[in-house]
């Protein structure tokens, strides 16, 4: 494996193949006149990716993706984030083959999508994948209900069935809708086919901050109901930490770190990741379950202020300020699993203050 941008070694942790919905293996994307010819140079390289990019540029080629591998678990929100030009949008287009990778594999279950025929690929896009992009992409000559039902038309569904699936939508034309309303239509259209995979490429970045927050809330509400397997692209670290089950941080076409928001915040892989996350408060990411203490043998089962193990510390502050001394931490389907004293919450806040002062 080539070295990352700063020359250090990195190896992304890959989940068990049997538990992965989507598996991305060793994806390379090189633009230029003869990418296949210069690919062996990239595959054999052990130099930092920036040095490799410069060498390829001397031959008239541009390295967009470098040896990208990761897995996405069923029902997971997997967020890929990075600055403009990091390769994140190229990556999601390679996953759907809107852009053809130069090399690698993309497995959906037992099927490698990069070897699928054009006919099979069309079928997958119509029935298995849902895609939402930053540009709303609505058909201007169709009203809302017709836009939502359009993918079903491509599947060959009858008009009556299409309208029944999309009913309840306004009959406004796209130009009569606000940006947030247009993106809601785009999301509804992408979900109309009931996709197994949902790809979203910076879907909220063109929206005003308040509307963006509302759309994030709506997105999380939908995911709570639908449990889709999602790859979500963003350049916004706050958005990534708010939405993600796991995050992959990209730089110069390469994944620098993969982990939960908490892992990335508390154990950044390098100074680049640390700078990315320095504005994220610990209390917003650290969860009750990650800092709780085990139930003591003497615990008598008394119930008090209960919180879910996945609840961020930030959400407990009002109750803590109101005088709650100990929270009972629970997990769905399990019941009480630990205790969270107010003193531990205070320690998280102190650690965050020290962390910020150190920077």
Rough shape? globular
Instruction: State the helical fraction.
Output: 25-40%
Residue-averaged pLDDT: 82
Describe the strand arrangement of the main beta sheet, using strand numbers: 6-7-8-3-9-10
Q: How many angstroms does the end-to-end distance come to?
A: 32 Å
The number of domains is 2
CATH topology label of the largest domain: Rossmann fold
Uncertain regions spanning at least 5 consecutive residues: 6-15, 165-169
What Rg, in angstroms, do the CA atoms define?
23 Å
CATH class of the largest domain: Alpha Beta
The total of helices stands at 15
Q: Provide the succession of SSEs.
A: EHHEEHEEHEHHHEHEHEEHHHHEEHEEH
> What would CATH call the homologous superfamily of the largest domain?
P-loop containing nucleotide triphosphate hydrolases
Structural class: alpha/beta
Strand content: 15-25%
CATH architecture of the largest domain: 3-Layer(aba) Sandwich
The major β-sheet equals:
6 strands, mixed
- What is the number of E strands? 14
């Amino acid at each position: 494996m080539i070295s990352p941008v700063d020359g250090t070694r990195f190896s992304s942790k890959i989940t068990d193949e049997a538990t992965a919905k989507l598996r991305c293996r060793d994806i390379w994307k090189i633009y230029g006149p003869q990418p296949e010819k210069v690919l062996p140079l990239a595959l054999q390289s052990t130099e930092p990716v920036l040095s490799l990019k410069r060498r390829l540029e001397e031959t008239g080629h541009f390295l967009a993706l470098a040896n990208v591998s990761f897995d996405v678990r069923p029902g997971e929100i997997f967020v890929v984030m990075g600055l403009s030009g990091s390769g994140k949008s190229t990556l999601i287009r390679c996953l759907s083959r809107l852009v053809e990778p130069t090399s690698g594999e993309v497995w959906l279950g037992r099927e490698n999508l990069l070897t699928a025929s054009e006919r099979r690929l069309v079928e997958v896009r119509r029935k298995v994948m849902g895609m939402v992009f930053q540009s709303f992409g609505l058909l201007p000559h169709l009203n809302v209900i017709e836009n939502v039902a359009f993918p079903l038309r491509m599947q060959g569904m009858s008009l009556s069935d299409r309208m029944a699936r999309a009913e309840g939508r306004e009959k406004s034309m796209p130009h009569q809708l606000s940006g947030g309303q247009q993106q809601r239509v785009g999301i509804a259209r992408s979900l109309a086919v009931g996709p197994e995979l949902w790809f979203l490429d910076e879907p909220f970045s063109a929206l005003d901050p308040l509307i963006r927050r509302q759309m994030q809330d709506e997105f999380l509400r939908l995911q709570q109901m639908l449990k889709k397997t999602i790859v979500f692209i963003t350049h916004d670290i706050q958005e990534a930490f708010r939405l993600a089950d796991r995050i992959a941080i990209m730089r110069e076409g390469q994944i620098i770190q993969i982990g939960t928001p908490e892992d990335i915040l508390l154990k950044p892989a390098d100074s680049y990741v640390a700078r990315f996350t320095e504005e994220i408060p610990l209390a917003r990411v650290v969860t009750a379950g990650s800092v709780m203490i085990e139930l003591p043998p003497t615990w008598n089962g008394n119930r008090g202020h209960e919180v879910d193990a996945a609840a961020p510390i930030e959400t407990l502050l009002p109750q803590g300020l109101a005088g709650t001394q100990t929270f009972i931490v629970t997990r769905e389907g399990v019941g009480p699993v630990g205790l969270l004293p107010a003193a531990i919450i205070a320690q998280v806040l102190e650690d965050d203050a020290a962390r910020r002062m150190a920077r």
